[in-house]
Structure formats: C-alpha cells, structure tokens
Amino acid sequence: MDLPGRKLNLKIWQAKVGHITLYLLDTDLASNSPHDRDITHRLYGGDKVMRIEQEIVLGIGGVRALQVLGLKPTVWHINEGHAAFLVLERIRQKITDEGLDFASSLEYVAVNTIFTTHTPVPAGHDHFSENMVQTYFEHYYPEIKLSRDEFLALGHAKDSPDFNMTALAIRGSRFNNGVSRIHGEVSSIICGDMWPEIEPKENPMTYVTNGVHAPTFLASEWIEVFERHLGLEWGARMNDVEFWERINNIPDHLFWSVRQSLKSEMLNMVRERISVQHFRNHGSEAHLDRLLKYVNPENPNILTVGFARRFATYKRATMLFGDLDWLREILHNAERPAVFIFAGKAHPADIPGQDLIRRITQISKMPEFIGKILMVEGYDLALSRKLVSGVDVWLNNPLYPLEASGTSGMKAGINGTINLSVLDGWWGESYDGKNGWAIKPVSESLSEEVRTREETRTLYELLQDQVVPLYYDHGKMGFSPNWVKMAKCSMATIMPRFNSKRMVGEYLAKCYLPASQQHRLYKQSNYENSHIIAEWKARVRHAWSGVALRRLDTEKKEITYGESLRFEVGVKLNGLNTNDVVVEMLLGLFTKREKLQSSRRYRFEATGTMTEAGENIFALEVQPEQCGKLQYHVRTYPYHEILTHPFEMGMMRWL
User: Fold this and answer.
1) Which residues pair with 178 in a beta bridge?
2) Nearest alpha-carbon partner for 498 in 569, 412, 438, 571
3) Edge-first strand listing for the sheet containing 205-207
4) Which of 391, 298, 297 is nearest to 343 (CA)?
5) pLDDT tens for residues 170-228?
6) How far apart are CA 24 and CA 62, in angstroms?
7) Treating both helix axes as pointing N-terminal to C-terminal, what angle do 252-280 and 221-229 enclose, rounded to 10 degrees?
8) CA-CA-CA-CA torsion for 346, 348, 351, 356, nearest 10 degrees?
9) DSSP conformation letters of 557-610
10) Do the Cβ atoms of 399 and 286 come closer than 8 Å?
C-alpha cells in the first residue's frame, strides 16, 4: 500500500481463538524502512504521524488484507474511529472495480457498516490537521472522484478545522451506538451535530451495553457449584434472568466458602507481588510483616476492597483520599479492619495518570496507612483475574458521565464480589438497590472539584455506615448472612444481563441482521437501490432549505373527551413530492416543565390539494385517547422507504 513517497508492505498473521479466526497486520518486514517497521510495534504510541499511519494500515490495509484472503464480509464493524479509513477504501474499490459513482458507493458501503464509539473522553476521538490529511491522501482524491474540499468535508466536525475520524465513521455508517445506556445518551449529544436538526434522543445514536465473556472470567471454583445447585444447563441459559435467581438455592455457608477460597488465592498472589517489590527496594522483613498484616491467606476474614484498572484521570483513583482524617477514622477500628488494594497502569505519555499512582504510593507509606493501603505493581491479566474474583468489594468512582461502560465491575459481579460505584456506565443500568452500593453523581453544573468533594463524602458515608458494618455483622456461622445475600444478588442480577452472549445477541438483532438485510437490498439489480437513494438524497438536500410548514386550520383550546379534531397544515416542498416527506404530529401529556412525557405519533395524509401560495395541504383527524392537558407538535422530515434510519439525513422542520 502507498504512504507518502514510498510503498509499505504488510504481513498478515492468522491466530485461532476458539472458533474465531483473528487476523493481525504487521509492518515489521525487512522490505520496510526502520520507521515503517515500527508502525505496528506499539498501540497508542508515538505522535500524530505514527497515529495516522497506524489508522491507514488498520483501515485501508485491513480491507485489502481481507480481499487478498478472499473474505467478503456482509457486515463491517468499526470500533472507535480508528478503523474508519476502511470506509474510504471500500468506496474506492466500488468506484474503480465496479464503476459506481461516489454517492452511490457511499450509500452502499454505509448501510452495512456499524460504528461503535467507546468513550466520551476527547482523547478517544482522533483528529488530524488538514495539511496532514492532504499529505497522506492527495493521491486518493481522484481515485474516489472527490475534490480536496469534498474529501476533507467527510471528516468535518463542528467547531474544529481538523479531519475528525469519528465524523468520518458516522458519515460512512448507518448503525451507530455507545456501549451503555448512559453512554448512548451522552454520545447522542456529543455527536448530535452530525444530525443537526434532530433532537439527541431521536437521532440514530443508540446503545448496546458491553458484556464480559463469562467462561473466561468466572472463577473455575464456581463451575461445580453451579452444576450442582443450578443444573448442568447453566451455560446454555446464560441470558435467562429468572434462571439465575437459583443462585439463592446455593447454601450460604457453601457460597461463603467458595468466596473465601477465592479470596485466599487472591491474597496469596498479592503477598507474593508485594514481597517481590519490597525486597527489590531493599526493604526489611520486619517492615514487610507490617505491610502484609491484613493480607493473610490463612485469615481472609478482613474486609478487602479492590481498585484495579487503567489510571486515567477521569477514573479518579485517588478520590478515596479526599479527607484523610475521615478515612483514618474508617480504617482504624481494631474490631472492623479494612484494606484497600490498588493496581493498574497509566499510559506512558499520561503524566497526570502516573501522578495518581505516585499519590497512592505516597499515602500507602504513611505510618497510619501502612498495610491498609496497598499499591501492587506489575498489573497484568493474572493479577486482574485474582482481584475481580477475590476481593469483597469492587470500587469504581469515575467522573460522571465519562465512564462509557466499564467491564471490570461486571467481572467482579459474576464472581460474587459486590460493586461500590458511581452510577455511571454499566452500573447505571445494573444497580437495583439490593445488588451493591451506588454513589449518585452530583450535578454536572458544579465544578469538578465540588463534585469530587461531594461524591467523596458519599463514598465515606457508604463505607462507614453500610459497607463495613454489613461485612462484620457476623451470624452464628461466623460470617454476615446479609453480606452473602447481597453477594448472591450481585451475581444473580449481573450474570444474565452483562455477559458477552447477551451483548453479541443484541448486536445481532439491532445491527448485524438489519445491516445484512440492507446490504442485500442496496446491492440487488446492480446496486439499483444505492443509486436511487443517492439521487433522492441529493434532491432532498438541494430543496430542504426551502421547506416550511404553516398551520391552516383554526386552533381549538378545549375539547371534550371522545371528540375528534381535524388539523390541516400547508407544506412548502420547494420542488419535492408529497411522498418525499412525512408530516406528523406528536401528541401527549406534558409535565409542569412543559416536557413531553408519553407521546403518540400521528401521520398526516396529503389531500392532493394546494393553497394559493403553492403549499401542499396535509390533513389529520385525530381522537385523543388521553384526558388532561395535552400538547402537540407538528413536524416534517424526509422519508424514503429504504432508508436505514428515518432520521439519518439529520433534517427536520417544526411548525
């Protein structure tokens, strides 16, 4: 493939992962320059030049690799904008190989492309200067029959002159989603300018909440327990919410025994890791005994809270230390001790993230917190698995709404660990008041400092008033029966709702099957429908600025229940046909704040008549089904029966 002034060669590696075939692209070849051999060496490394070259390799190189392998996907899924250049390469191939024009090629490519955005954090949305894009793509413009300005417009985003990869991904796809309900709502606002006249709640951005692969992250100790008390079919009924209520059939003492066994394994690994790093730093054995006082595998009856993940600043790893006096009060109860275990890594270029690790390490060395705050180095998958299955509580306190989904809490929850988290990401749709603890986010209108201070207070209150007392509320069996009850609820509610089987099934229903159907529809009869929709959209865009609505009938303030109303509106179509638009009414109850609550949609019909001003008359006769203060809104938007999403053009006119 071509890079500025040179050819780049790629090697394709094949890996078998269960039933899945994974293909990897590699530039580390003797035929490439030292710089080019390094392109695929490090993920998220280097400068903007390295980044755009990585994304060209992934997007354009990825399409060509599949072509060489003889693979012809019916659906393409872009995770983040990193692979968005594949849209351009697929368009180029349609133009050069099959003679389609750009607009028809774009429509054909977009209908079977799914774009998933994974973060609301700006750093996750790559953008490149126009000059850089010009350097790498000026040879590409004529191949896809676009001018420089037309090409750059594909990556145009509001309030930025740069070429935005998220904008390119949205323009080149017809299925768009975030990775949790909250993140879907946030993304519909962040990306709302891509559909400028559509309310965020109605634009094409939806969500599919992430899930974790239970067979991978469920500790093996649970399998025999499940088979005995849930039945051998537990794996086949992964998504059956009612089935997982059978968790309550597991005897409390057995459930607690498994939890304690897993906790001992985790404590053993933590001891080993702490010991290695301690002696590496030439520490004494006497001090090591102090460090490990509360992480004793032979006595796992001390409340253990885990925090392990990437140390990005928005995850607020040091929020626990906002009031050290209060924290000291919580931790210095000899009868109810607690230990916090931290682990994780920061990006090599993320200095603020590295500072968080330094702060935790600093506090862990304070005399009053020695052994009660532990920072475990060398975070890896092995340690991660032990922590999520072994700690009693999984702590997560991101700054709302920046946690797109989060999956570590899911991994913990399916193992009976209890989540204590800010109501963000996946926890916002999982927490039910019985399966863990929630920190309600403070208003976003306040400063980050105030929000963190208020949420830290909630964290301390939960720890002091609920978490610690519940853990040490021992019954006759030597453990807290109410703790076990909450842990069971955590497992029973999280397992069926947040596993990857559910996630893939949802992608299949929401995205993959509809995209595959649209792919066939737009391909049939030599791409006839691709041409039709491209020409129709061009006609609508040309006319839309002149489309307007006007009320023709006389407004009525009040009617009796059961009475019908007739509405008439005149629509200036500016050259469009009546079947090119939908005219509809939203009718429903409103709150005191005039927010539409539950509305029904009623569609106007063209009467075939026109006003003297040349407006097409649309009429609707409706009999409201509700009593009370009803309000209505009338609107029109472009309509074609083969559109993938009714509002994909981002156009709407309101009366």
Assistant:
1) 207
2) 412
3) 76-79, 113-116, 175-178, 205-207
4) 391
5) 999 999 999 999 999 999 999 999 999 999 999 999 999 999 999 999 999 999 999 99
6) 9
7) 170
8) 20
9) S---TT--EEEEEEEE-TT--GGGEEEEEEEEEE-TT--EEEEEEEE-EEEEEE
10) no
Distance between CA atoms of residues 456 and 151, nearest Å: 48
The answer to whether residues 209 and 179 touch, using CB atoms and an 8 Å cutoff, is yes
Tell me the C-alpha to C-alpha distance, in Å, between residue 152 and each of 94, 164, 428: 20, 9, 38
Question: Is the bond into 401 cis (omega within 30 degrees of 0)?
Answer: yes
For the purposes of burial, counting CB atoms within 10 Å of the CB of 359, is it exposed (0-12), middle (13-18) or buried (19 or more)? middle
Write out the two tokens for 109: 């490519």
Which structure tokens are listed for 598?
């539950």
Per-residue pLDDT at 592 exceeds 60: no
Question: Which residue did the predictor score with more confidence, 295 or 630?
Answer: 295
Q: How many other C-beta atoms lie within 10 A of the C-beta of residue 293? A: 15
Distance (Å, rounded) from C-alpha 305 to C-alpha 295? 11
Structure letter (DSSP) for residue 555: P
Question: Hey, which residues does 551 pair with through a beta bridge?
Answer: 569
Residue 193: the pLDDT is 95
Predicted pLDDT of residue 122: 80
- What does the DSSP assignment read for 285-344? HHHHHHHTTT--TT---SEEEEEES---GGG-TTGGGS-HHHHHHHH--TTS-EEEEEE-
504-518: pLDDT as tens digits: 999 999 999 999 999
Answer yes or no: are the C-beta atoms of 12 and 65 closer than 8 Å: yes
**83 touches 117 (CB < 8 A):** no
Terminal Cα-to-Cα distance of the chain (whole angstroms): 52
Question: What is the helix (H) or strand (E) element at residue 92, kind and residue range?
Answer: helix 85-98
Helix (H/G/I), strand (E/B), else coil: 404:
coil
Cα–Cα dist 139/552, whole Å:
55
Report which residue type is found at 332: H
Of 193, 51, 208, the closest CA to residue 117 belongs to 208
Q: Is 62 helix (H, G, I), strand (E, B) or coil?
A: helix
pLDDT in tens, 277-286: 999 999 999 9
Taking alpha carbons only, the member of 518, 513, 510 closest to residue 640 is: 518
**Residue 306 to residue 266: CA distance in whole angstroms:** 11
Contact predicate 624/585, CB 8 Å:
no
Tokens of 393: 């509580």
* Largest distance between two CA atoms of the chain: 96
* 94 Cα distance to chain centroid: 31
Separation between Cα atoms, residue 406 and residue 400, nearest integer Å = 12
The one-letter code for the residue type at 375 is M
